[in-house]
Specification:
Blueprint lengths: L1 H25 L4 H18 L7 E2 L3 E2 L4 H16 L3 H13 L13 H4 L1 H11 L5 H14 L11 H17 L2 H16 L35 H15 L9 H18 L21 H16 L5 H19 L32 H16 L2
Antiparallel strand pairs: 1-2
Helix pairs in contact: 2-14, 3-4, 3-6, 3-14, 6-7, 6-8, 8-9, 8-10, 10-11, 10-12, 12-13, 12-14, 13-14
């Protein structure tokens, strides 16, 4: 009996040890595997779109400098910074050249979606500042906006990501506070004035997508509707903007405060499998894995860890679980990404989002994935 008892205790200890190491392995991140996943996903897309300037055909024909493709190039440039492959650089340059470094609606546009391509145009200009044409149209477009006092253009939260980092880049390049001040004023108008009393909930610390979703609008479970990707856009915009703000910028305090509040709110919404639902507070409204919002949250939170804003011990498990989920459950062997919700503005749009479902646009989901992977890869 004593021998059996000792054997039972020993076997129990071995099971516990085995579970510990298996769980540790599941929650670890390999730099090599992270790079491998990014390269694979990007290779799939570049092979599918060998002509960087080719028009996009879905329900209708669109030029390839629209926001969906621009977000992909944000991710590609992030990948290029950690893996300086000339094929990536040349692909991005060919994209800009094919559009003559222009915006979809021209330099007079105030539409943030049209200005999103300017983020990559400017990043490519920063690589070779002799190429003035790369920055010409986007600078002119933003300068045109500075000639007015209008600050209410960003009336949907996606717009913050599409345009706010452009202002930050121009402010940094030209050391001109006008760009920083205007982006801050526009951000605060969206936060505090659009909708009823702003699109940011001071209670839940999450964002309503636009005026159509502020209270009394409710989800089926009675809670507010906070769309995953919409909140992901804001979190990404904050970090992509703070990257270019001067160290002692007077605007940084507000952005950091909003960022920290959002992160803590988002952590509470994470699913057990690491993903986030399309509706952050209602898993019954088209619940399930969703890649684009999840990847943006990984990007934003990992950035905070890498920049010493978030405690690594506390937040690393959050991004580790999410990134491992993205790589193991959404990335196909050929590089295709499943579980990407297509374009829209709420949980029910572009559904279903499944492992084998191809979204109407494959580009922006990949861009979010590459942004996330780039920050994961930088971790020490």
């Amino acid at each position: 009996m004593r021998r059996k008892s000792r054997l039972f205790v020993l076997s129990s200890i071995l099971v516990i040890i085995s579970c510990f190491f298996n769980n540790t392995a599941a929650q670890s991140i390999s730099k090599a595997k992270t790079m491998e996943a990014m390269v694979l996903a990007n290779k799939y897309f570049m092979a599918k779109w060998p002509d960087a300037g080719k028009e996009i055909m879905t329900d209708r024909v669109r030029p390839s400098n629209i926001w969906t493709r621009a977000v992909y190039y944000e991710g590609l440039m992030a990948l290029y910074k950690i893996k300086p492959d000339t094929a990536y650089l040349n692909y991005a340059i060919r994209w800009g050249e094919s559009h003559k470094w222009g915006l979809r609606s021209g330099i007079k546009t105030r539409n943030a979606d049209d200005q999103c391509c300017g983020q990559t145009y400017i990043d490519l200009y920063l690589i070779d500042s002799s190429k003035k044409e790369r920055i010409r149209d986007i600078k002119t477009s933003i300068d045109n906006m500075l000639t007015t006092d209008k600050t209410d253009d960003w009336n949907w939260v996606d717009a913050i990501q599409m345009s706010m980092p452009v202002y930050a880049r121009l402010g940094a390049i030209y050391k001109d506070d006008r760009y920083f001040k205007r982006m801050y004023d526009m951000f605060m108008f969206t936060k505090l004035k659009h909708g009823t009393n702003g699109l940011y909930s001071p209670v839940d610390h999450l964002w309503w997508r636009d005026k159509d979703f502020v209270p009394p609008y409710k989800e089926p479970n009675g809670k507010d509707c906070y769309w995953s990707r919409g909140n992901g856009w804001v979190l990404a915009a904050l970090v992509r903007t703070m990257d270019f703000l001067p160290e002692k910028s007077t605007y940084k305090k507000e952005l950091i405060s909003t960022y920290n509040q959002m992160v803590d709110a988002l952590v509470k919404c994470q699913r057990k499998d690491g993903f986030w639902n399309v509706s952050l507070l209602d898993s019954t409204d088209f619940g399930g894995k969703e890649v684009s919002g999840t990847a943006l949250f990984v990007y934003g939170i990992a950035w905070g860890i890498n920049n010493g804003i978030l405690n690594k011990k506390e937040y690393l498990p959050i991004v580790t679980k999410a990134w491992n989920g993205l790589v193991t459950e959404s990335l196909h062997p050929n590089g295709f990404l499943g579980y990407v919700q297509g374009t829209g503005k709420q949980p029910k749009d572009s559904q279903p989002a499944g492992y084998d479902n191809v979204p109407n646009f494959e580009d922006f989901g990949l861009g979010c994935f590459l942004l996330a992977g780039s920050e994961i890869y930088k971790m020490k």
